[in-house]
Amino acid sequence: MYYYIYDSFLTDKKYERVIASVETRLTDLGISGKIGRLTPFTNAKGLIRDETRRGVQTIVVVGNDETIAKVVEGIGDTKLTLGIIPIGTPVSIAHSLGIPEGAEACDVLSKRLTQKIDLGMVNGRYFLSQVCFAGDNVSLESDGKFRLTMLAEECEVTISNLRSVVADDGAGHTAGDPMDGWLDALITPRTVGLKNVFQRRADKVPSVIPIRRMSVTAAEPFAVIADGREFMNDTLSIEVVPEKLKIITGRERMFA
């Protein structure tokens, strides 16, 4: 039994055609189901709680990366399976999972090729893809094995579980594999300027450090982006939660 969660931005008229094609294809494949909609007055957790009581076993996100983040957080500790129909921008998470945009994603959904993948957790909240923040004046400590304090260096720190661009640490470890039981800390020099605060310099190769847990501290609150959602804090507690999420993927996914 499928339950589809649509993001609120999909009510814009420019999405009418793609939504119609998606719903037609779902009907043709025999996997249409009840639809719930995110609004300023509803959240994914509440929608999911109500529908699981009615026997729903598969939640399908219809939207972009931020929609996925909302639903992953809403799924929490349930045993549900997650599917994705990417519409809008950005959709880098879906691309990493091998899922095409729009109606073509319905065919991936119908084949139901599932994987159990890791999730990350930051300050008690799950994330699927990555956590990103500027590395100026912060201290990083991981698993009691190392401590790194960055002063005024212009760099970006990305704690990655799933990435759209695969990086390698030079020792055979591929960053961004959500089935390896690790998160990956990528430290990359970045360009200077407020508009480019998270823009990487193309000529710089990131340092890749596999981790299972990391704490991040700073003297003042700093901006953090987790799967496209921004918040402020002066302390982060980050860890991997192995095999936490059962998810439907495509054959072109960027991991084993």
How does this structure look, described?
This protein is an alpha+beta fold. Helices cover 18% and strands 41% of the residues. The protein folds into 2 domains: 2-112, Probable inorganic polyphosphate/atp-NAD kinase, domain 1 (Rossmann fold, 3-Layer(aba) Sandwich), CATH 3.40.50; 125-241, Tumour Suppressor Smad4, CATH 2.60.200.40. Strands 1, 2, 3, 4, 5, 6, 7, 8, 9, 10, 13, 14, 15 and 16 form a 14-stranded mixed beta sheet that branches. Strands 11-12 form a two-stranded antiparallel ribbon. The longest helix has 14 residues, at 16-29. The protein starts with a strand and ends in an 8-residue tail after the last strand. Mean pLDDT is 88; it is low at 165-173 and 193-202.
